[in-house]
Amino acid sequence: MKAHLTRQAPVAWGLVLATILLGWFGRDLAKALDARWLVKVPSSWDIPFNTYISAAMAWLMEEAAVGPVSFTDATRAIAWLIEQPYELALNLLARGFLFDPGPEPQVLLPAASWIAVTAAVIALGHYCRSWGLAALVGACFAYLAVFGQWDSAMITLASVLIAVPIGAGGGLLAGIWAYRHPLGERILSPILDLMQTIPIFAYLVPILFMFGFGPVSALVATIIYATPPMIRITIMALKAVDPEILDFGRMAGTTRRQLMWRVLVPSASQSLMVGVNQVIMLTLNMVIIASMIGAGGLGFDVLAALRRLDIGAGFEAGIAIVVLAIAVDRLSQAFAERMGQVHHTTPGSWAARNKRTVLVLCLLAVTWVLGRFSPLLLDYPQSQTITTGAFWNDTVKYLNVNYFDAFEAVKVFFLQWFLLPIKKTLLGIPWPWAIAMLTLLGWRAGGWKLAALCGAMSALIAVSGLWAKAMVTVYLCGASVILATLIGVPLGVLAALNRRAGIAINLLIDTLQTLPSFVYLIPVVMLFRVGDFTAMIAIVLYALAPAVRYAAHGVRSVSSELIEAGLVSGCTKWQLLRLVRLPMALPEILLGINQTIMLALSMLVITALVGTRDLGQEVYIALTKADTGRGLVAGLAIAFIAIIADRLINAGARGARIRFGLES
Amino acid sequence: MIHNTKLSCRNVWKLYGANAQEFLSSNPAPSGDDIRQAGIIGAVRDASIDIAEGEIFIIMGLSGSGKSTLVRCLSRLIEPTGGQVLFDGVDLLTASEQELIEIRRHKMGMVFQHFALLPHLTVLQNVMFPLTVQAAPKAEAEEKAREVVDLVGLKGREDYYPRELSGGQQQRVGIARSLVTEPDLWFLDEPFSALDPLIRREMQDEFMRLQARLHKTIVFITHDFEEAVRLADRIAIMKDGEIIQVATPEELVLNPATDYVAEFTRHIPRSKVLTVGGIMTPGTQAEGMPVPATARVSEVAEQIIAADAPRPVCDANGRTVGSIGRTAVARVLFGAGEAA
Amino acid sequence: MRQNLRILGAAALTAALSASSAWSAESADPIKLTLHDWSGQLINTKIMGSILQEAGYNVEYVQADYIAQFAGLKTGDLHLAMEIWETTGREALDEATASGKVINAGDTGMTAIEEWWYPAYMKDRCPGLPDWQALKDCSEEFATAETSPYGRYVGGPVTWGGFDEERVEALELDFEVVHAGTDAALFAELESAYQRQDPIVLWVYAPHWAPSKYEGEFVEFPLYSPECYSDPSAGVNPDLAYDCGKPRGPIWKAAWAGLPDKWPGAYQIIQEYNLSNEEMSAMVGKADLEGVDIDTVVADWMSENKDLWSGWISH
Fold first, then answer.
1. Which of A84, A180, A259, A518 could form a disulfide with A254 if both were Cys (CB 3.0 to 4.6 A apart)?
2. What is the bridge-based pairing of β-strands B311-314 and B291-292?
3. Which domain of life is it from (chain B) (predicted)?
């Protein structure tokens, strides 16, 4: 084995060096050989996937039918089904119940008062866990009222209240189906890969056709984006249930249904809640994009504020999204915990047993009745709202006026010594060589199957005519991921080793993940101008989270025996980190980088908004031209890049775990 | 010991690997070499046993010997590759899913090594669970559950969650739960292996106490030969998926079938295995208090050695069947080399 | 209101009973108007909506993306889009009308202007502005580290088109075109440079709040003509096309093709409706710079121009 390795190392390094050299001089070489096809795929080789897809879509929308029921009828029926509970939630929280929505609508019942809603979440917090949680969620909702975000926040909350149960419930059912049928997982797995990696802009237009224009389409898009982690976690959690519990369930004579719902699902509930948490976070991540197609709410406030360059207002609306995310997440976690336990009914009448519910209902009724006389009870008075908008605007202005030169210097340094060399290299590598190298890498990491996958997917990108844009994508993401790793892994290690730093870092990461990137994109543009560097900052900020989290988790879960063994051998703190902790955490760190790549790719469409020229831009252009085929082809190309990266890194991480004996 | 056979298995095979089924049908009695050459793993090989009603039958083997697989074949938690499993004369392997569910609901109970308690249910709810899935009336189920919880000595802890209990207590819950449906056949899969030695001993006593009251037919898995000897009516020793020997503890000690079995028995204090009946001089008479023939030598050694003359030995009906004296006992206690 | 109209019509002119039944034949379903994320469009749409409501129609506003809304207009999920700019939305509008499911409901009376624009302080640093020839001599004034020695011109999002690369080449300007991805990014660049009084020249369009917030003016290029874009020999550069400024064009209204049949009266009003650039700029300024609530701005306009819009209704 050893001899084998030492013989292979020079070959591997040689190939890497050859690739870099080819990258630098590829263009010159192509020119010298008069073989331009080496660096640019000849357009005559392109396969017009986009026209095929557009034609297929047109057929689906206009002609596909089963008997008298056309495809669009079916999707419209689904849309109607989703719309009913949504309308109810929206009426209750934001719009009020109207009678005959005519020119002067009769309000049957106004929307629930801010006082009643805040009281309801406080009661829920207390019911689910404690006064501490009640105070937290109460403060979150009070923030929304005091900072004048209430109305928009309730619209957003209404869509979250619909999207999360559908996403989590649907994900659970799909996961159960895949768990029961071994084939199911094989079918679902690639679909999930695509759902997670194709940017939402790519399929926005077909969704609008299928589900109509309005909040329902936004909900559907949100659900498509937010459900995959739930499905994956469900499959994983069910598989991880102790086999003895499964045996017990069968020995108790349960039917299949009983076994699933009374034994497996409750036993896996802790892990399942992680999935629900993911659904909530991703749903709130989608708020901005959803608002572009009719969801309204806080996302719209962010967009509109930034269009008038009101950075402060955009920031406040963005923070309101974070606050809402925190409240919904903490409540759902506590609620699940509470549901996991079975409770004893205390004797007494219904009202005596449900004091909180009675209280909230009373409050709701009272505010409704008294609200006719004093609008204060229904709507938080506008004159009492606080805004910190001016502060943020001034801060950005201050930084801009006083430190622009420093920012500029940093930017120029990064561009010259980091970004541009990578870009030049990647764009110069002849595509046949790149495909060959990827195939070889796939073969080394995971055998011929992976090699075939890498080869086929990269070749498909080449013949779809998107090679150059794909390389720009790889360059932008690659550079961002390198930077995110360099920042994120040390932060993660610090968070693992120092509790107080850990708390601060966690808070930062949570905020960065839920704060819509749009909010900081525009200030960053002001300080760094449009261009790749700005895009990179946005990507790094967004994609940092998994690098930090996985590194922290990896370092934390190194077994204490190994640490003790290191200490007994006389390791210094630094040696302990370098020789024991980091190597053992390597598989986790690799998975974190993998997730970082996924997030970086999912940010591409957003960075297209600051003028990058990559696949994200291609998707965005296709959207503005309502070109379904073009958008989906570019979206698929992004998905392919993601899948290749994912498979290669996973194979690498598995290799590392096997070497450490953590997996066989 | 002559009772009806409750559970028996005939030529049960469990093979893992590609095309294991076809392999077995083309070669119904493959040798170990055949299996290895076909690239198949033989987890259970040609197991045939009969378990009598009311018997404590222990399957003993080291980890990887196939004992857990065998017991799961007997309960059809695992589908055997070949053979027959007869429970009250019914072949379990041909039973439909519905029939199987009925049998498990009413006639089988099982206790697991790591307790397999449902974490989201209280002690009482865990114990009630098998009745709940049968849709038994709630009040009745609760009453029954309280009864068995009481039986295993957990009265007062009905509303605790499993995580609030010690390992021993958790296993008591597991035992109570497996008994709540009043099964005829009771599987225990290494029930005490995960417990501390002191607790394990206590639980073994508890188990014997329960069995003395309930008279279940028991299939008990363990890797601990001492435990097997202590509890078993009969022991099956497994190695590499094969049953090497089925015998009473005494026979195992006195006549081990192979060196492998002898290796186990060597370190067992013989006085704890051999019964008075096994070492007495049959047909002779003696004076004094009779000693029961089924008693272990260790239990009565002190009084026999202390006595001046041999003591009579009686059977279960009080009939004198022989006598036992100091020398016989001393030989068991100190004569280590005798079995060799 | 609508009820009143009907009673009035029936009482006054029995002969016009057919007219009144034509009114009642119109659907009571809400007409759905799309809202985008810039104030001008919101004001424009809400004025239109208010007028339709005054005329007795039910109206619903739907939040929609500027381009994605065509999907809804085609299917009839949405009915009316009030601002399709000749300059940025023409392609999508043409594609939609070609399908036969969307119709162009005429212009809004407003004209879209888009052109290179610079802050007033640049006049000192680059004498000769607003004439485009001045840019030739002081392109270095506009240079940054990345574009040096060329000047930096911030163009609109790629999707807006605009032929700026071609213009730079045809007019032999030493500028590099950098595309902002959205107009938010575009104006962020302007705000940033304006705060520092740094050089900048960029794509600005009107009606928009920016020309009223920042002091500055549009560059004066040779006037646009269709030949200038299509024929290389026309214009100052005999060899290349695009050697002139950008075209100015109307802002269109786009409607679902079924609208005229379902609400014929409403369609008439929609076609009548028009506003001027000045009116709109004043209202946008009120909303974006003075912070007046958009609904207030709309209500003010409605009360000040009652005669105007009642005229549109009564036709």
1. A259
2. parallel
3. Bacteria
Does the CB of A250 have a partner CB in chain B at under 8 Å? yes
* CA torsion through residues A640, A643, A645, A647, sign: negative
Assess contact for B290 and B319: CB atoms under 8 A.
no
Structural domains of chain A ordered from first start: 82-387 (1.10.3720.10)
Mean pLDDT, residues B183-200 taken together: 90
Domain count, chain B: 1
- How far apart, in whole angstroms, are the C-alpha atoms of residue A273 and residue A180? 20
For residue A415, give the DSSP letter: I
Those residues of chain C that have pLDDT short of 50 are 1-24
pLDDT at A7: 63
Chain C nearest-CA distance from A42, in A, is 24
Asked if residue B77 belongs to a domain, the reply is no
Task: Name the one residue in this structure whose structure tokens are 């934390």.
Answer: A556
pLDDT exceeding 90 applies to what percent of chain A? 17
- Number of residues in chain A: 664
Pair C149, C220 in one domain: yes
Whether B contacts A, i.e. 3 or more CB pairs less than 8 A apart, is: yes
Least confident of A4-13, A41-50, B159-168: A4-13
Q: In this complex, which of C56, C154, C187 lies closest to A103 when CB atoms are compared? A: C56
Give the C-alpha separation, B52 to B273, whole Å.
21
Chains that touch A (3 or more CB pairs under 8 A): B, C
Rounded to 5 degrees, φ, ψ at B283 are 80, -5
| pLDDT tens-digit series, residues A54-66 | 888 878 777 777 7
The domain in which residue C261 lies consists of 27-111+250-314
CA dihedral sign of residues A262, A268, A272, A273: positive
Last residue of one domain, picked from the residues C197, C230, C263: C230
Contact between residue A544 and residue A517 where contact means Cβ atoms under 8 Å apart: no
Tell me whether residues B104 and A255 touch, CB distance under 8 A. Answer: no
Strand partners, B314: B292, B320
Same domain, C127 and C205: yes
What residues form DSSP beta bridges with C206?
Answer: C113
C55 near C3, Cβ under 8 Å? no
Dump pLDDT digits (tens) for A272-310.
888 888 888 888 888 887 887 777 788 888 888 887 788
pLDDT value for B173: 94
What number of other Cβ atoms are within 10 A of residue A451's Cβ?
Answer: 18
Residue B304: helix, strand or coil by DSSP?
A: helix
Question: Terminus-to-terminus CA distance in chain C, angstroms?
Answer: 17
The region of weakest confidence among A17-31, A179-193, B149-163, C51-65 is: A17-31
**Among partner residues A245, A255, A341, which is closest to B101 by beta-carbon distance?**
A255
C32-81 confidence digits (pLDDT tens)? 999 887 788 899 999 999 999 888 888 888 877 787 788 888 888 899 99
**Residue B311 resides in a domain:** yes
Higher-pLDDT residue of A80, A21: A80
Q: Which residues pair with A106 in a beta bridge?
A: A99
Indicate whether C127 and C137 sit together in one domain: yes
Q: What is the DSSP letter of A181?
A: -
Assign 3-class secondary structure to A414-481: HHHHHHHHHHHHHHHCCHHHHHHHHHHHHHHHHHHHHHHHHHHHHHHHHHCCCHHHHHHHHHHHHHHH
Place of tokens 């695992």: B78
Mutation pick from C4, C27, C37, C90 vs chain A, by most beta carbons of A within 10 Å, is C37
Q: What is the pLDDT of residues C96-133, one digit of tens each?
A: 899 889 999 988 888 888 899 999 999 888 888 889 88
Query: Tokens at residue A664, please?
Result: 């066989």
pTM for the structure as a whole: 0.81
- The CATH number assigned to the domain holding B285 equals 3.90.1280.20
Amino acid at A4: H
With CA atoms as reference, the chain A residue closest to B78 would be A247
